[in-house]
Design a protein that fits this description.
heterotetramer, A: Butyryl-CoA Dehydrogenase, subunit A, domain 2, Butyryl-CoA Dehydrogenase, subunit A, domain 3, B: Butyryl-CoA Dehydrogenase, subunit A, domain 2, four-stranded mixed β-sheet, four-stranded antiparallel β-sheet
Chain lengths: 377, 398, 377, 398
């Protein structure tokens, strides 16, 4: 057993920390969010140059063979900097699916584009009626001639507005909730019949609701085997869930530390509020919750890295804990900051908002608690 | 002990229902039912309609235009107002400065200010908090220096809610810097049109513009606008703070939100079943529902005690604490029901009269913003920690 | 609406308070518990003389026509004194069933005996497999000749050891969980075939596990109509639940107040521990939880008194709240008392134990939360 | 980062398993599996069996007879010990006084005391707490007055766990009443057979006799029994307190309890279904399970940090707080599963070797007593509030 990072992993960590320091000061971030794209294409180029976009891919696909540990290291720092560039959408989600299920041709084209920063992608999986259930799909793709016709709608597709290409889950057979009969397709985001309603999310990220109105697809647009995509989707969503939990742990760490620093300087009734025992104990609890969440993060990441049978169960444990602990840390940080915590000016509220949205992303506490119980039997 | 209403009380309830059905502006109820934010004009119209009926001032003594309602009548009124989702009264005039004026003001001040408050001719805002003084209100620094028959006021007030609409502001100012910090504070009414006042918006984490920072740069205020005695402002403000706590349980409104959330959850599907039928989710609903049932009775017990004699005691801090905990839990629940659709942010939806296309179900619009916004309730009006200090000292004598 | 007690109710309250002061000092109570019977027959006589045993019965049955409000007043003070005499078992449970369902002859005989203190009773309803579900019964009574034969076992029958007569629920038709087919019988506790295993409960009360091995009953031992007893059982259990919740509120009040008093005098680090803000806020929470529970108690009692449709739902809300709030108040009282709270010598631990057992009695928090949700639809 | 065991570690695990299967006394494992309380003799036999294998002293340096295990080996051992439900070591000798003796004692003391501790020839108890001094340990009053080559000890120690079995007691005593209260404290070893010592049982709310009040009436203690320097006892005790915190997470034991509770819940019926399949109950189980998974990793992270250098830091207070919260939650859960059968009290079931008829399912026997008893864990060893004070000061620097 070993809980330490390798030298290369520490170097990676340093590079992200330096990027955040140099390029992601809070006012710069604000400008990035209010820009046309809602993120910085220059930063995206930097990501490519630093090799971050190549991280999780095997060398033969032009990647640098990173494990879930590297993704964790990167995402934890992304969380500390509240970085809004759609790394999760393009690299972890779409990239992960193509790495897992793509044909050599698809991998060469699409992962090549991801790695060099020229192709941005998104994964359209969630549907309004399906809530967090990945198999609950009414979007269909029916065979027609040599290809497929895609029909349906997907909701809150992260990174949707900037995506050049989409991976879309659709039902090619079976009933609404069946595990079998689900397939993945690569869809050009500008193809005829694809319409996007783009918006900013409450935490300053970009997403779209996307409608597919009889979109024609070639047979070569099918990603992986027809009808058998669910296990692949679950695997990649688990990896992405762990990644976003690493982001949350980074955000939680900044949040509780910011509260401690604020409490040391903010005076009320003639003393720093950090002298009040009730607030001291609360901050201790914020610290403990962060540490306990970090422990589960390490556990889940190592389980994913070794491909353990109980990896999925561990990811659900982690995600549930991120939901409750992230909410507690976020809410208490606002409370400790008092009125100032309520203002858009201070960064703490933005961490709170990101932590809140991470709870929703890939399933809330209740969803993952149930999945944990099911996977425990 | 019993829960039943008398015949008179039942008749009163009918009258309230009739009023909302027949007399109160229909368009305002419609806007509310669509979840639209009311404009300043709408709000004033709403308050004037109540004033015309004589129902604007629930807490005031009858002689000044108060309703003279019993605790039970108030309860009935609140229930009915919540049932039609009535726009809440802006509290700064009617519930906050008015009690100070009719309790501590002189006759001339009463004559000058109360009628306009009662009829919502003048919009008031509150100037208590300062950037340096949050929960420690008494450490405020805004100076008022006597200069002949004026005070010259310099300083900054913050969290001035809806100051952008306000005609007048009531302020706690420091008229004496020596001695105990509570003792040099005075209570001053200031015309917002006075030269030297500027208002800077504060945008909050929900994206809304509700509060402001209000700056006073050598603002000249006629000395006749001083309430009571110079240096006694703290005493007056404390009385007001207790008044503020009574309405804060917000039981009827929370009951209404709960029922809206249940309806929303009955429509949202989860694994082919309505979310409302999910055992885990239902348990969460039930926990809040039970806490709210308890709070309603605690509120009624407090009201009953008040109607037997005077101001609510420190026990009323429970109403603030539990009331805000429930309100916050409800916004969290609404966000939970929204699922992925809690994430989209439509800035325009926070503007009065927005009637655009929702992203996802219309019930989901703004649930996250509401959740973020409601975090303020455990901070303002004396943070919940301060309320616990009050109970610890005044009730438990620790 | 009116939340005040009548003059008579205040007199009743005073009389119980005086009894506790005079006869239930803590060392006296300890002696009573370790006595042969585990309670005091002298006290029982006093109860009869003071009219407490006649309280809930109509005048025509020799009672004094008390409402649930009177029972609440009495039980709240019983909770403050931690009184162990089996008032709940004899008067509220068995007495309530006979008042509700008994024939004039049964009422005359049994309620007469209860009122004058000569007859003690108990209600045997719970079964091991049934947990808190009143209809889950495998005890059967089968018609035989002119009478019935009773077979089965009942668990944790409160007041069982001292009972002269038992009321027993049994299935006379239907399947294990059916709502219909349940009947009540009056059984002589010393009848042939009845065997009791008597014991003390962890909170110092008396209970029995009772086996009925082909006990012969006369037709006149049937209490109420055959097969239709469930609604009556539910009604009386609801009344008893509210009564025991009143007891809990009394116990909670003593418990939080004892903690406050202890914290004012116990010194650590040179100051009274009541000066530590963390403990102050915790005691505030104990106070608030007690007040909120009291509010629900008043609500449930008034709903029962007026026979409201939602009385049962309100009782479940109350019982769930008593479970969580009672646990919180009890646990924190021990924590605040520190090591001393762990000792049998101090009374606070005994309140904690009683509150713990009240959570179990008539169904735990989970049971009543589910019932509340069902009754809310 | 990885979780896998090396070949050596796997071999070690096999060796531990083999030991419990073949060498360790079978009858003791059987008694434990039936839920029986072990007698004093049983406990000593158990510890001697471990000592014979060289496994009694996990934390000690190898030179004094410690195992020399790595963090991973300790983890493996704890897992296997929990799997057979091994009787926990009585900590007072092996984990508490021994580290003080080998760290601060002189050579003669080491020679005299350590071997008997290692082999469980001598039963130790702890004399720290006093009736007046709970969490505020340093305010202790038991006096030790130097008289020639003896100390004369007078005072009262409380919560002396299992003092009824003890041969020796290690005490913090006051040798100087002037100056800072921490500075006049000395660390003294006292033979329990010394004239003037009396032990009064304290019965706890669970009905058990585990702790005592121990009185010292002019007890003469040879000065050679003083550890280190007079007046430095507080420093030594503090080192020991940190040692105490590391074992306290009790992860392996809690995992075992959790699995027993699950089995029990699978047998208990609720509405015709096993309680374990009840969504609400299952959620409660899962919450504890996840917290325990996290604590296990936190514990391992702490152990790994320790093995890289020295004593555990103040972060180890997390292990105490979370560990005891989980242990308490588990006893609460066991009581919940028992339903009505949590209520009966069988006093004899607390006695060693009791093998009587249970009332209700055997798993339910004593669940309430256990729940009551475990409330102590958030009080002793530095209450959880004190632990939070420690983290606040030493980690957060507040």
């Amino acid at each position: 057993m070993d809980f330490s990072l390798s030298e290369e992993q520490i170097l990676l960590q340093d590079s992200v920390v330096r990027f955040v320091q140099d390029e992601y000061e809070f006012e710069k971030r604000r400008k990035i969010i209010s820009s046309e794209d809602g993120f910085s294409r220059d930063n995206w180029k930097t990501f490519a140059e630093l090799g971050w976009l190549a991280m999780p891919f095997p060398e033969e696909m032009g990647g640098i063979d990173g494990t879930p540990v590297e993704t964790m290291v990167l995402m934890e720092s992304i969380g500390k900097g509240l970085i809004v560039e759609p790394y999760l959408a393009t690299v972890v989600l779409a990239g992960g699916l193509i790495k897992e299920a793509g044909s050599p041709a698809q991998q060469e084209e699409l992962i090549g584009g991801i790695v060099d920063g020229s192709t941005m992608m998104a994964f359209a999986y969630a549907e309004a009626q399906g809530r967090y259930n990945l198999a609950d799909l009414v979007t269909t793709a029916s065979q027609q001639g040599d290809g497929w016709v895609l029909k349906g709608s997907k909701c809150v597709v992260l990174g949707g507005p900037s995506a050049d290409k989409l991976v879309v889950s659709a039902r090619t057979s079976g009933d609404q909730m069946d595990s079998n009969g689900i397939s993945l397709f690569i869809v050009d985001a500008n193809a005829s019949g694809v319409s996007r309603r783009n918006y900013t999310t409450v935490d300053g990220n970009q997403a779209s609701d996307i409608t597919f109105n009889n979109v024609s697809l070639a047979n070569s647009d099918l990603l992986g085997a027809e009808g058998n995509a669910l296990p692949i989707i679950e695997k990649i969503i688990d990896e992405a869930t762990a990644a976003v939990c690493a982001e949350a742990v980074g955000a939680m760490e900044v949040t509780y530390q910011a509260s401690v620093e604020y409490a040391k300087t903010r005076e009320q009734f003639g003393v720093a509020i950090g002298q009040f025992q009730v607030l001291q104990h609360r901050m201790v609890e914020m610290f403990m919750e962060t540490e306990q969440t970090k422990s589960l993060l390490y556990l889940a990441i190592m389980k994913l890295a070794e491909g353990a049978d109980d990896a999925a169960k561990t990811v659900s444990a982690l995600k549930a804990k991120v939901g409750t602990a992230g909410r507690f840390v976020g809410q208490q940080a606002i409370q400790i900051h008092g009125g100032m915590g309520m203002t858009d000016e201070m960064s703490v509220g933005h961490y709170f908002k990101r932590l809140t949205m991470i709870n929703t992303l890939f399933g809330s506490v209740d969803h993952h608690m149930k999945r944990f119980a099911q996977l425990s039997d | 002990m019993d829960l039943s209403f008398s015949a008179e009380e039942l008749a009163f309830r009918d009258e309230v229902r009739r009023f909302f059905k027949e007399e109160y502006p229909k368009d305002l109820l419609e806007k509310r039912s669509k979840g639209q934010v009311l404009s300043k004009d709408d709000i004033v119209r709403s308050q004037k309609a109540l004033a015309a009926k004589g129902w604007a001032a629930m807490n005031w003594p009858v002689e000044h235009g108060g309703t003279g309602w019993t605790a039970t009548q108030r309860y009935i009124y609140e229930e009915e107002a919540a049932a039609v989702d009535l726009q809440p009264l802006v509290p700064f005039g009617l519930s906050m400065v008015a009690p100070v004026i009719y309790t501590f003001g002189n006759d001339e001040q009463k004559k000058r200010f109360l009628p306009d408050i009662l009829e919502s001719n003048v919009w008031w805002c509150q100037g208590y908090s300062e950037p340096g003084a949050g929960s420690d209100l008494a450490s405020l620094k805004t100076k008022a220096v006597r200069d002949d028959d004026h005070y010259v006021v310099t300083g900054t007030k913050t969290w001035t809610t809806l100051a952008q609409h306000a005609d007048w502001i009531f302020c706690l100012v420091r008229t004496d810097g020596s001695g105990k910090k509570q003792e040099g504070i005075s209570f001053l009414l200031i015309d917002m049109k006075s030269p030297g006042i500027s208002v800077r918006p504060i945008i909050t984490i929900d994206g809304g513009h509700e509060v402001n920072e209000t700056h006073f740069e050598e603002v000249r205020v006629p000395a006749e606008n001083l309430i009571g005695e110079e240096g006694k402002g703290w005493t007056y403000a404390k009385v007001l703070l207790t008044h503020e706590r009574t309405g804060i349980a917000a039981v009827a409104r929370s009951k209404r939100s709960l029922s809206k959330i249940k309806k929303f959850a009955a429509k949202q599907m989860n694994g082919g079943l309505p979310l409302l039928e999910d055992e885990t989710f239902r348990r969460r609903i039930s926990e809040i529902e039970i806490e709210l049932m308890a709070l309603e009775m605690t509120d009624l017990r407090t009201l009953a005690a008040v109607s037997l004699g005077g101001a609510p005691g420190p026990e009323s801090s429970i109403l603030k604490i539990k009331g805000t905990e429930i309100q916050q839990a409800l916004t969290e629940l609404a966000m939970e029901v929204s699922g992925y659709y809690a994430m989209p942010f439509i800035p325009e939806s926070l503007e009065p009269g927005w009637n655009g296309d929702p992203i996802g179900p219309e019930e989901a619009v703004g649930t996250a913003s509401k959740y973020f916004n409601m975090r303020k309730t455990s901070i303002y009006g004396g943070s919940n920690e301060i309320q616990k200090n009050i109970i610890s000292k005044a009730v438990l004598r620790l």
